[in-house]
């Protein structure tokens, strides 16, 4: 069946609507602030072969890697997963990303015919492991990071295993139930599209991507960047190089990560699915933001990620920070390389970290109920080049205090945070002067002071505390981030913390996180009528 352009867009909109509604159900039904308030979840729709048809505009690192979860589920179950059944997976080496992200998958049957699949992924604040939040900074093996599930049927016994391994089982129960419910809604909506020509959707995505690539110059552009460390130990304090060579040839493109450092002891390693997700994000951001989000768009794309490197980690290395930090740096190098082919479309580097803060305690009072808080903290966006067709515009400043790159979460409102946890927010404001100078300056980072009201353990998984978010076209880099401990809230006793650590806090201690600013774009000496005096091309 061939669809006319209008009918094709209606089908794409209906598929996207299925994913949007799944995401709304998941957030409204979820129990944890991390999903309900921060929206740390994603939803997507797939064809019977597990090819991505549509996604909600949720979290890039979730969505670009979710097809690997579908592939793992289909490899395990084929078409034996019946109506009403669902599967769950979080194993990074079998379709997952890191252990906190539980992906729940459901088939959609119409009589005896498989219409397609729906899936959602949610970051669970704790799935066991050596530290509250399941991202222990000292982890060197996956076994230290929590419960690992290969693709399995999600039944009462598996649900009980997940709950038994978490410090906060009541949250896991509510969040898992919300994921199941979101898929139930998705299956019902997708069933209405039985018989629709899904191949047309994928072919449209491929045509759009090939047309956008053909409009770019042929050539090769190489970019490198670094991660500050792989952990808190002295032998982990060395930078890790991520390298990407982008080659455009006609209507095809490749992203080659040969030359990236080997995986190292520590949790700053990404599995290949995370790397593919960063490539998909950079491609859409720089080549054509209007590209549809489906598997057809990736058909002209080749990703080379050598196994055993920091961008394609292999068992049994820890990978907790690969999803949240390595993904950011992979996106950075992809975008910087693409700036050679499309300099008018690529901004300077954004903060390049998710600033992960994980705090957990045993709880006080008669029930001694444990609690775990997780949040990523926003920062500065990179300064942006002028918009096409805007004569005289010298660029657009980066936005301040927002989530950028591979994350698209929200902040936890102060009221919700303080109601849910024994924490108090003392300061939460923009970090003035942290954005890089330029004709279009980088956005500002954030300053936040968080007081713990009872003894707790904190894990920090952060980046850009040594390396700076780079500027482009003569712009200056953004300021690095900083982590501080104020014992008892005393400024005079403030201690600088490393970028990655797990430490104990006493009631009354204050954790201060200063997030990086974005890099500046364009020579600061430019005027409205001026021209560039320098370029990174």
Description:
The chain is of the alpha+beta class and 537 residues long. The protein has 3 domains: 5-196, no CATH class; 205-346, no CATH class; 347-537, no CATH class. The protein is built from 10 helices and 19 strands. Strand 16 and strand 17 (495-497) form a beta hairpin. Helix 1 (5-29) packs antiparallel against helix 6 (169-191), helix 5 packs antiparallel against helix 6 (169-191) and helix 8 runs parallel beside helix 9 (322-341). The longest helix has 25 residues, at 5-29. It is globular.
Observed structural traits:
537 residues; alpha+beta; 6-stranded antiparallel sheet; 5-stranded antiparallel sheet; 26% helix; globular; disordered C terminus
Give a concise summary.
This protein is α+β, with helices and mostly antiparallel strands and 537 residues long. The protein is 26% helix and 22% strand.
